[in-house]
Amino acid sequence: MNSVAVPVNEDDSPERLQRLEGLAARLLDACRAQGASQAEVSCSEERGLSVGVRMGEVETVESTRDRGIGVTVYFGKRKGSASTADLRESSLEATVAQACAIARFTEDDPAAGLADAELMARPGPAGWPDFDDWHPWAIDADQAVDLALACETAGREADARIGNSDGASVSTSTSLSVYANSHGFVGSERGSHHSIGCALIAGSGEDMQRDGWYSFALAAEDLDAPARIGRKAAERALARLQPRPVATGEYPVLFQAEVARSLIGHLLGAVSGGSLYRRASFLLDSAGTRLFPDWFSIHEDPFLHRGLRSAAWDNEGVATRASALVDGGVLQRYVLGSYSARRLGLQTTANAGGVHNLQVGANAGGFEALLSGMGRGLVVTELMGQGVNTVTGDYSRGAAGFLVENGEIAWPVDGITIAGNLRGMFESIEAVGSDVDPRSHIRTGSILLGRMTVAGAD
């Protein structure tokens, strides 16, 4: 853990949420008065502070306060939406009127409408669950600058070969949101997010390498100490010095945890409702089929304590539920909101707005254990470019990392390309490590693929 001090100011979030709930109720009444058969309203407020330093000097200090109001109305199967950040009555009335005008002049869409009323989340006897995701950090700009400077200084002083810096940053934000609809659902949420990060440059002349590290958490006390982050950034930059070429060929490839979650992200993109009903996915009609080895699993847990995406309802008010996305290597379901579900003739999976806290099951030890088991291969620590085709599954991306010989890191490599097809890549997963990166709602350890094509220096 860390030594970051966490002062606390008086919390006015309950009163602010009440005001947002009252505003949402008034807007819903205004939508009904305009003749809307259904309506939904979202209201949000955000406050934040971010600072950046570089080479021991302050570069940026930014304080933000944002708010937004979104109104969506339905006249039968016709939909209209409008938004504003202006809370004056005249602006709110104009926003409702604009949404209604749009709906009146659009064509019918058979899939349009709120999620079904019987699917709405309801509080239990003790009320809504508490996910412990509200931890405001009462830090001022001077304190944030001090932390950023401590982070960068620790990294720059870690080794004489750290000759430059891309800077260090500290940020904190809180958000309040209310979603309400004409089914009678009203849901209020609040959350906090904090981060400390640093990027450093090692070497000189043509032999310079950049890398960094960061810590991200809902509560400031869960952040790594600034000095530790700085030293980790230095260690990573130094490890990349004097890269050597690697021959073109086929290699086992180990995606380190922080990049491994991108593989799961590609799966999510292919099984999301929008890609499926547009027929723009290589995984069309794949629910119920085996895509991964029979030991592989991905579980969604919306109720995780201090989870980065914990929620009792999705963006449409539908009650969330814990369920398997992949079990026994078989894709159990798609990722759907109500609109995409109707387009596909299915039912929403309570994923309007995205997935909640995915856990990829591990079948191996930590990173070192995966290294020792792969013999000769490639560790990928950074991915570049956007060479992923969701329609065909073809995958080709620039990468950097390390060559592995006899189960140990031999030397750094960069300027390579790794390629394959996602369906084949999923099938060739040999291991998932226990070294979970906690900085994402996709919680996975490193992922080892048995074979990928690597284009190297030749």
Describe this structure in words.
With 458 residues, this protein is α+β, with helices and mostly antiparallel strands. The protein has two domains: 13-239, PmbA/TldD fold, CATH 3.30.2290.10; 243-458, no CATH class. 24% of the residues lie in helices and 35% in strands. It contains nine helices and 17 strands. It has helices at residues 13-33, 89-104, 141-156, 226-239, 257-271, 273-277, 338-344, 367-374, 422-427, and strands at residues 38-54, 57-75, 78-84, 162-181, 186-204, 207-217, 249-255, 298-300, 323-327, 330-331, 358-360, 377-384, 394-405, 408-421, 429-432, 442-443, 447-455. The strands form three sheets. The protein has a six-stranded antiparallel β-sheet. Strand 2 and strand 3 (78-84) form a beta hairpin. Helix 3 packs parallel to helix 4 (226-239). The two termini are 45 Å apart. Keywords: Hydrolase, Metalloprotease, Protease. Residues 39-103 form the Metalloprotease TldD/E N-terminal domain. Its EC number is 3.4.24.-.
